[in-house]
Amino acid sequence: MWRLLPWLVLAAIGGTVLLPAFSHAVGVWSTTEEFGFGFLIVPIVVILTWSQRRAFVGPSRGARLGLALLIPSLFIYVVATRVSVHAVAGLAVIPILWGAVLYLRGTHAVRMLAFPIGYLAFGLGLYRGLLDSVGFALQGITAILATFGANAIGLDVHRDGVILTSNAFAFVVSQACSGMSSLVSLLALAALWVYVATGSPFARAAMVLAVFPLVVIANGVRVTLVLAVASAFGVDAAVGFFHGASSLVLFGVAIAGLLAVGRIAGCRAPTFGR
Amino acid sequence: MRSVDVDTNALEEIGMNGRSIRKGATAALAAAALTVLLGGAALADTAPNNCGDPSMATGVQFLSLQSAQNLTLVAQADGTFTADVQVRVFCKRGSVDIGDVAGSKIQVSTTVPNTSINGVDASSPVTIDVPTGLTTVHISSTNPGLAAHQWFARVGSDTTFVSIAFDRSVSFDDSPVQIGRVFAQTPELDSLVLFGAGAVGMGGYALSRLRARRRS
Question: Which of A77, A205, B65, B108 stands 20 to 30 A from A22 (CA)?
Fold first, then answer.
C-alpha cells in the first residue's frame, strides 16, 4: 500500500493541474451531440492503460529526456488554458503525460502507454469549430450525394445549397445531418481497431484513410433513403422511427466496410496476445 | 426611362421569434446556420433607387451568406453571442435582380429574450437605415440556448431560418413556412450512441474471430 502512495500523490497533483482540460472537454461532450462519444474515451483509455499496467511494474528506468517533453508541453498547456484555446490545452495534456511517464518510468513504459495516452486526443482535442469547417463541408457533400442518389432512383429532387425539395417534401441537410457524428465516431473506432489489430503500417493507414469516404457514402445513402421514404410514405414516416433506425444501420454498414477494407489491406482481427 | 423618387424607402420586415430553454449552458461557442431563401440573378438593367414601379418588387438578402451557408454566433468574453451579417436591399423585375435600392430602411424585430440588433433592444422592431442599399447588421444575444424551431426570420415573402442554434439542432416542425412548405431534417443519431454501438459491434466481431482462430 505504501508503495503506491507516491503514485497516488502524483496522480492527485497531476489530476488537479489537468482538471481544467477535462472539465472543458466534459462541457463540449455534454453540449454537442456530435462529440458526445467523448464520454466513452476516458473509460477506454483507462482500460487500455490497465492492459499495459506492466509499464508501472519493476525498477524505474526514468529518463531526463522526459522533462524536455514535459516542461514545454506544460507551458503550452498553461498558456492555452489562460487564453482559452481549450483544444490546444486539451491536446497538450497528451505530451505532458508522455513526458511524465518517460521521466518517471523510461522509454519502455512510454512505448507501452503511447497509444492509450494518445487516444485521449479523441476526447480532449474536440472543439466546436470543427462543426463550422468540416461539418459544413460535409453538409454540402451530403446534400449533393443525396440529390444524386434520389435522382438516380427516379425521384424529382432539387437542391438549393443544402435544401432538398420536391413536390412532396422539403428537407434541410443541417449540421446534425452532416455525417459529423459518424465521422468522428468511426475515426475513433478505426484508431482503436488498428491499435489492437495486427497488420502492416500500410494496412492500418488504409483503414484510417477509408473512414472519410465510407462515412460520406453511408450518410449520402442514409439521406437518400430518407428522401425515398418521404416521397413514398410522407415526411412523418421518414423522420420517425425510420430515420433513427437507418442512421444506426448505415453506421453499421460503414463499420462493416471499414473491417472489409482492413481485411483486404491485411489488417487482421486482434489476438489480444500482445 | 422611369422617374426617380429619392424620398421613397423600401421597407421590409424581418421577424424573429424565440425563447430560451437551456439555462446554465456551458457552451463556449454558438453556431447558427442561417439559410437564405432568396433568388439572386445577374444585373441586367439600370438599378432604380426606389423600386417604385409596379412591375418591380423589393427584396432583401444577406450578402455574407450564400444560399444555405452558415453564420456563426460567436461567444464573447462578456458572455454574449454575436455575429455580423451584411444585408442588401435590392430591386427585381421578375426574377432579374436590377440593383440596390438606395435610401432604404429595414425593420428587424425579435422575441428572442435579451437580443439586440445594432445595439438596440430588438424586442420591438428596430429600424435600420440602409442609405446605399447595403449595410452590416450586428446581432447580439445573451441567450445561452435556443429551443428547436424558435429562431427564424421572415423577409417579405422570403424566409430565413436557423437550422442549428447554439450547437443544437433546430427542428422546423412548426416554423414559418414558405409557399406552404415545412422544412424537415434528417439528423444522425448522437455520436455517443453510434460510438457505443460501434464499439460493441467491433468488440463482438473481434471475439468471434478470436474464437474461430482458437477452434481452427
Answer: A205
